[in-house]
Amino acid sequence: MTISRRTCDDILELSEHSLNKNLIDSVLKIQFKNTLILPSGVSIHETADRIYVLVTTLVSAHRFAFTHPNKLVSLVFGSLFGEPVGDQ
Question: How many CB atoms lie within 10 A of CB 60?
Answer without folding.
Answer: 9
